[in-house]
Design brief:
Heat Shock Protein 90, two-stranded antiparallel ribbon
Length: 401
């Protein structure tokens, strides 16, 4: 809950700093008023009194307004002009202003009467003091003074409106920031849920296709099947141990891929050549988990499977300044099958969606003709290493302190 409730009319009590500000303002006003009265030696009220008396009266009158300021601020909050029935509120404030002005003037008159200010001659010609009699209305009300107090009321009320507006504006900013934070958190949770769903979609797809490869050799090569099953168990253990990590180090992804490729080499009975080229500065890069396996699977299914003789699959990774480039190429039919490849089931669609969720428009997947024949699948994404990510997190944590 914030310290300001918009529905309460902005009636939050003054803080300590605001009290000090009110006291300082009216003290300055009292000093200016006292100086003005001392300079006006021709004023009948103060012509025959000690010089300290105008000072006392000035501070008394201004501190009365200092005490009234919180009340007027409260009124400004309760009668905010931004609400409906503006004219009713304005007329109400005018009436309140008149009452306050008359009350302040009567209070000041009472205090001045107690001080008996002004010359009065009693019996024997002795000089005494009496209350001033210039400009008094019936009921001891002085028209000009009431008007001055009325103007002061509206000045303080304007300050109250400004304070009320500032408090409402600050409360709305805090509420907006809170809602933006909650929205960002919900968006992050939604993105993580979508990524988890994509991973959940990919794992059964990968398992089904791998089991299909194993089943194709059950009768022809039982010993090879046993080796394939052993490698498959390692792959399943890897996927289970990886948990819900959306990104892994590239060397870890390559290690997983090598086990999968061993299964494919057993399936092709030594007719599949694998070439892995990993740049020295690319091994520490963070990549989406299982990002290369669907590309290799498509290279096998739509490339190597479609030719007679030995198949070749090349996997390369390199860093280009702040970008990471991953490539999987084969020696299959090439461009003839690119259109079909681009629309090939779960694997490629899953990769594109995961790249979009993790990196937005900064990452992408393209399919093109290989210079030596066949097809090249290329992923371009921002380069981030685990060490750089850890440094960024630490720096952000220190900056937020």
């Amino acid at each position: 809950m914030t310290d300001f409730d918009e529905h309460s009319g902005g009636t939050r009590p003054l803080s300590r700093a605001e009290w000090l500000g009110v006291f300082a303002f009216w003290t300055i006003m009292a000093v200016l008023s006292a100086a003005n009265r001392l300079a006006d030696q021709g004023e009948p009220v103060f012509s025959a009194v000690p010089r300290a008396l105008p000072i006392v009266l000035a501070f008394q009158q201004m501190y009365v307004w200092a005490l009234l300021t919180p009340l007027i601020f409260w009124i400004a909050g309760r009668f905010n002009i931004e609400r409906s029935s503006v004219w009713v509120r304005v007329l109400t404030l005018v009436a309140i202003g008149i009452v306050v002005a008359i009350t302040v003037d009567l209070l000041n008159y009472t205090l001045v009467s107690q001080l008996r200010v002004g010359p009065r001659f009693g019996a024997g010609g002795a000089a005494r003091v009496r209350p001033p009699s210039t400009g008094w209305l019936p009921g001891n009300l002085r028209g000009p003074m009431v008007i001055n107090h009325f103007i002061l009321f509206w000045g303080v009320l304007a300050a109250g409106f400004a304070r009320d507006y500032f408090l409402r504006f600050r409360a709305r900013e805090r509420e907006t920031a809170r809602l933006q934070g909650e929205t960002s958190q919900l968006q992050m949770q939604l993105a993580e849920a979508k990524l988890s769903a994509l991973n959940a979609q990919l794992n059964p797809h990968f398992l089904f296709n791998t089991l299909h490869a194993v089943s194709s050799l059950v009768e022809r090569d039982p010993r090879g099947v046993r080796r394939m099953i052993a490698r498959l168990s390692e792959l399943l253990r890897y996927t289970l141990d990886g948990g819900t990590d959306q990104e892994v180090v590239l060397v870890q992804e390559i290690a997983f891929l090598e086990r999968y490729l061993e299964i494919m080499q057993i399936r092709f009975q030594g007719q599949l050549e694998i070439d892995i080229q990993l740049g020295d500065d690319a091994g520490d890069a963070l990549v989406p988990s299982l990002i290369l396996q669907p590309l290799v699977e498509n290279a096998v299914k739509h490339g190597v499977d479609k030719i007679s003789g030995g198949g070749k699959i090349k996997i390369a990774a390199r860093r280009e300044v702040d970008r990471l480039v991953l490539m999987v190429s084969d020696n299959g039919p090439g461009p003839v099958k690119i259109a079909k490849l681009d629309d090939a089931g779960v694997g490629l669609a899953n990769i594109r969606q995961r790249l979009e969720q993790l990196y937005g428009s900064e990452a992408g997947l393209t399919l093109a003709e290989s210079p030596n024949g066949g097809t090249v699948a290329q992923i371009t994404m921002p380069f981030r290493s685990r060490n750089e990510l850890r440094t960024t997190i630490v720096a952000s944590a220190e900056a937020s302190r």
